[in-house]
């Protein structure tokens, strides 16, 4: 290793991080991965790894100082965004996000209040100042959704259809909340929403993509899970006119200078309702799709940013307003419960010219529980095509080719996304 080669410490070794490791190595960085799981996927690709929890900041400080780390990076989950910030503060090295910015992104109450300050539409919640009283329960219009204000990855969320449900859901939400605080909102039961991807570049806010996020609700009491993220959204023009100016003002109001953000919204009766924001790289690996559209790799920008390098070559401002000339999709594959016996078709799928990347979370021998959570996701495929027709054919080909069988001999694919039906709607 050359003396001048910079080192990046990655927090988490999950399958999604393999692409981060390889990208950083291709950029010339020496990559160290840490988490508490021996043999986690990204560790196998890294230059070096440690079995140290990403929450053990004291130990990570020791490792970073001994290794002479130049930067810290994380992606795909909110917990490690906080851990990375804490570690960088201890090391005295820069991090793209501040405590105040992460608080707004991580706390649903604070996020809503910040949205309201800039006239960004949100779902109005019920008043819980006096707790979950019988009077409040009597006023609820069911169904409602109960959420911890500060949990991640849909943990602790329950869709409730009556008073008994809401009492149990409220208790569950408090258990999952670090601050022991929950919110209750009307549940908008729709298989469709939007995901927006913004890029902050030297203080300017760029809308990299507006997408359609299609979901499937497997269990009545659990929140829906994604089955397709389609680029661009069929509601792009309406979003640009109705909501985008306020959202840009809101992001500028947070003082964000550089970084990538994802924002989720519901779409109901012709209106948008924003409900969640993350200040990090997304699980849909939208940076791969954006690079295919613009030639600019936002993951590379974030990696260079983590070590304090100049990022002027990543100027995305001339690719604003959801510039997506090539129809694209991030396709999650959801599974029924069971134990995986056999997986077939991956080699053929990866050979398809439309496939950019694949992240596989499961292998033969894994047992999938009926959790109604992301644990039921086999993996995700990132697809880019020259036309909507070609994109739809590629999506169908993935479903037709992929075969996941259980030890009982059953097909484990839970649901199939039908893009041609969306176009007819």
Give a written overview of the molecule.
- The protein has 425 residues and is α+β, with helices and mostly antiparallel strands.
- It has three domains: 7-95, Rossmann fold; 124-186, 2-Layer Sandwich (Dna Ligase, domain 1), CATH 3.30.1490; 192-424, D-amino Acid Aminotransferase, Chain A, domain 1, CATH 3.30.470.
- The chain is built from 15 helices and 18 strands.
- The strands form four sheets. It has an eight-stranded antiparallel β-sheet, sandwiched between helices. A four-stranded parallel β-sheet has the order 3-2-1-4, with helices on both faces.
- α3 packs across α4 and α5 (99-106) crosses α6 (108-117).
- The chain is globular, with a radius of gyration of 21 Å.
- The model has no long low-confidence stretch (mean pLDDT 95).
- This is ATP-grasp domain-containing protein.
- Keywords: ATP-binding, Ligase, Nucleotide-binding.
- InterPro entries: ATP-dep_AA_Ligase, ATP-grasp, ATP_grasp_subdomain_1, CPAse_ATP-bd, LAL_C2, PreATP-grasp_dom_sf, PylC_N.
- Residues 112-307 form the ATP-grasp domain.
